[in-house]
Amino acid sequence: MPAKIPATVVTGFLGAGKTTLIRHMLENAGGKRIALIVNEFGDVGVDGEILKGCGDAACSDDDIMELSNGCICCTVADEFIPTMEKLLARPEPPDHIVIETSGLALPQPLVRAFGWPEIATRVTVDGVITVLDGKAVEEGLFAHSPEAVNAQRAADENLDHETPLSELFEDQIAAADMIVVNKADLMADADALVSDLRMKARPGVQVVKSTMGALPLDVLLGQGAAAESDLESRHELHHHHHHDDDDDHHDHEHGHDEFETFVLALGEIPDPAAYAGRLAQVIRDHSILRLKGFAAVAGKPMRLTIQAVGPRIDHYFDRPFAPEEPRETRLVVIGMAGLDRATISKALEPR
């Protein structure tokens, strides 16, 4: 059976920066074919037009589909499932599907929809990304404009859930595999909010800062969470809530300076299981976001593939080493700027 197509759900309140984050993702797709489902409703599909206008092949009109008949979690059967079926029926299905929810959508019912028989065997939820307006949360508002959230609620005739922003915020945190504290450049103390969210979130949930949603593709995609199989740990406070669409406003410069990547070239490892345990500890100690690569195992002809997303580590033998291929361990480490490379390197030395 072919591998399931990964899908990433991007959720968050109006003005948090979902559209900006996705636009940046598409502009830096690096050849990966990403299909996008935008849940926007109202008279004008602003988010869809913003994304279609990014001037990149990854933003082709055919790969951007808009759901405009109301909040996605209230129209799963009528709109979302048929749209997914259309994507999956294409002669060349996408490499990855990204779903931008409206600011009113509950993430949990949408994740639950991936268990529907029409799509369950074809797609998996790679991860749920919750985007926060860091400045608004720091000020106790949750959304940039609570008034705009209420206006969006009033405009959606299909909306069947009414919940305070504070409770909806808790649902977004409960569903997340990654929390993006956006607009960090405007905050008084972004690190304090990051620390607080790490304590509130489930174990293993990554919390990162961003400005204008500028995050590396390797950080956003490839989480491998299979969220549809893990709904119990994502329990919502209530069965009904809301959010709102997002604008991209801000004129601040942005880049990837907040992140760093480096490669470690190491020797053969003696024991894959023991080494995976050490990797997990180093990841926890240094808040490493991603770690991936290959290892040579002493006495084994096969190459060991290693993939780590936060503390979750997968390792398996994928193929024999080629005759001229060096038997070494090479690991790519991705994290926030300021990683202690020397300490990490020493801790990961085979022994």
In percent terms, what proportion of residues is strand? 15-25%
Task: Give helix and strand order, one letter per element, not per position.
Answer: EHEHEHEHEHHHEHEHEHEEEEH
CATH-defined architecture of the largest domain: 3-Layer(aba) Sandwich
User: Main sheet, how many strands, which sense, barrel?
Assistant: 7 strands, parallel
Describe the protein:
The protein has 351 residues and is α/β, with parallel strands linked by helices. It folds into two domains: 5-234, P-loop containing nucleotide triphosphate hydrolases (Rossmann fold, 3-Layer(aba) Sandwich); 259-347, 2-Layer Sandwich (Hypothetical Protein Yjia, Chain: A,domain 2), CATH 3.30.1220. Helix content is 28%, strand content 23%. The protein contains eleven helices and twelve strands. It has helices at residues 18-27, 46-52, 76-88, 107-113, 134-138, 146-155, 165-175, 190-200, 217-220, 272-286, 341-347; strands at residues 5-11, 34-39, 64-67, 96-100, 123-133, 178-182, 206-209, 259-266, 290-296, 302-309, 312-320, 329-336. The protein has a seven-stranded parallel β-sheet, sandwiched between helices. Strand 9 and strand 10 form a beta hairpin. The longest helix has 15 residues, at 272-286. The radius of gyration is 21 Å and the shape is globular.
